[in-house]
């Protein structure tokens, strides 16, 4: 079709580590369930995504002391498979009694800049309690 740009979907993997996890209870109290909390986190991605000291904000609902779910927004600035720029992802997940975290994320439409303008995609990770590096998978395309 004339004038149509075709993009190719790429899947990339790597790891991230988190640092500076700052969490505070919003309500109703530290020992209450369910309770709402907020966490500010910095992550460093390596592999297909290279981004140091990302900005990440989570809203967390603890159903019990060890289980619950969360949503978050994360701004990544760096490179994806060599393309330099930034983009934001929206994250949704849950954590279980054993401390395992399951999360999916999706690029916020229109958030790409620089060499990542027009990026679309989604990914996932599973973090086991005590891991220092978490493996992620990210499938994306850039127009």
User: What integer value in Å does the Rg equal?
Assistant: 17 Å
Given the structure, what is the number of helices? 0
Order of helices and strands: EEEEEEEEEE
Mean pLDDT, as a whole number? 94
In order across it, which strands form the biggest sheet? 1-2-4-5-6-7-9-10
Please tell me what the overall shape is. elongated
Distance between the termini: 16 Å
Helicity range: under 10%
Number of strands: 10
Largest sheet: 8 strands, antiparallel, barrel
Helix and strand composition category: mainly beta
Approximately how much beta-strand content do the residues carry? over 45%
State the low-pLDDT regions, or none: none
Report on the structure:
With 143 residues, the chain is mainly β. It is 0% helix and 66% strand. The chain contains no helices and ten strands. The chain has strands at 10-27, 35-47, 49-51, 55-62, 68-80, 83-95, 101-107, 113-114, 119-127, 134-142. Strands 1-2-4-5-6-7-9-10 form an eight-stranded antiparallel β-barrel. A hairpin with a 7-residue loop joins strand 1 (10-27) and strand 2. The protein is elongated, with a radius of gyration of 17 Å. The model has no long low-confidence stretch (mean pLDDT 94).
Distinctive features:
mainly beta; 0% helix
What's the topology here?
Layout: E1 10-27, E2 35-47, E3 49-51, E4 55-62, E5 68-80, E6 83-95, E7 101-107, E8 113-114, E9 119-127, E10 134-142
Antiparallel strand pairs: 1-2, 1-10, 2-4, 3-5, 4-5, 5-6, 6-7, 6-8, 7-9, 9-10
Give a quick precis of the structure.
This protein is mostly beta strands and 143 residues long. It is built from no helices and ten strands.
């Amino acid at each position: 079709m004339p004038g149509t740009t075709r993009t190719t979907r790429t899947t990339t993997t790597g790891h991230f580590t988190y640092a500076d996890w700052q969490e505070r209870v919003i309500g109703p109290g530290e020992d209450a369930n369910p309770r709402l909390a907020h966490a500010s986190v910095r992550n460093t991605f390596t592999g297909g995504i290279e981004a140091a000291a990302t900005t990440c904000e989570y809203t967390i609902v603890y159903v019990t002391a060890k289980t619950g779910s969360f949503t978050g927004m994360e701004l990544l600035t760096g490179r994806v498979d060599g393309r330099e720029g930034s983009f934001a992802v929206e994250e949704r997940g849950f954590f279980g009694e054993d401390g395992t975290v399951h999360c999916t994320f999706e690029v916020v439409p229109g958030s790409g800049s620089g060499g990542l303008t027009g990026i679309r995609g989604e990914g996932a990770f599973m973090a086991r309690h005590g891991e220092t590096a978490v493996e992620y998978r990210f499938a994306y395309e850039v127009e």
